[in-house]
Amino acid sequence: MHDAGRAGTGGSIEDVADWMYRAARRGLLLDPGLLLLAEDPALIGRLWPEQILLEDERDPEGPLRLNPAVRAIPYSFVIVSHLPGMSAPGGTPIVWTRGLERSGEWRTADGTESGGVFAEGGGWIGFLDGRVEYFRNLHENGGQLRSFRTGARTADIWQALPPGTRVIGQEVELRR
């Protein structure tokens, strides 16, 4: 991470906590619960952080810092980062529930941070145009998404993403 390696200081976005820190610093996101679902088995028995930013006890007048509890919890959603300006169409996926595979199917919920969110599989996808839809899988009609490059139907969410985008919030960050 940039900025002398200090988490949540404005360098590259390494994980969901870094993304939330940036959004909170800009006043765009104040509640970490936005990316948490009560139905998520990976969250059972865990305390949710109430705020993203905290004052530094040593310097109350200084910049707000990332609440460490924000980094200690698995998030129910993964987020697309580094979208290319105005060139992405409205049907571009920008957020979806954890566990979506390139096959177009969600892993079933197993209570782990890499499992899906819902016991029966399936999940939510939020799109750049503001739509949010639930899908059992992405295979119907030859694919529920559109390839960014060709416009053809696809079940592979990676094909729906513009080149250069990054997906954060999975067990491994992936780049397109």
CA gyration radius, whole angstroms: 17 Å
Written as H for each helix and E for each strand, in order along the chain, the element string is HEEHEEEEEEEE
Shape: globular
Mean pLDDT: 84
Kindly describe this structure:
This protein is mainly β. It folds into two domains: 16-71, no CATH class; 77-175, no CATH class. It is 8% helix and 18% strand. It has two helices and ten strands, in the order H-E-E-H-E-E-E-E-E-E-E-E. Strands 6-5-4-3-9-10 form a six-stranded antiparallel beta sheet, with no helix packed on it. The chain has a two-stranded antiparallel sheet with strand order 1-2. The chain has a two-stranded antiparallel ribbon with strand order 7-8. A hairpin with a 4-residue loop joins strand 5 (123-127) and strand 6 (132-135). The longest helix is centred in the N-terminal third of the chain and has 10 residues, at 16-25. The chain starts with 15 loop residues before the first helix and ends with a strand. The model is unreliable at 1-10 and 172-176 (pLDDT under 50).
Short description:
The chain has 176 residues and is mainly β.
Describe how the helices and strands are arranged:
Elements: H1 16-25, E1 53-54, E2 65-66, H2 68-71, E3 77-81, E4 93-97, E5 123-127, E6 132-135, E7 145-146, E8 153-154, E9 166-168, E10 174-175
Antiparallel strand pairs: 1-2, 3-4, 3-9, 4-5, 5-6, 7-8, 9-10
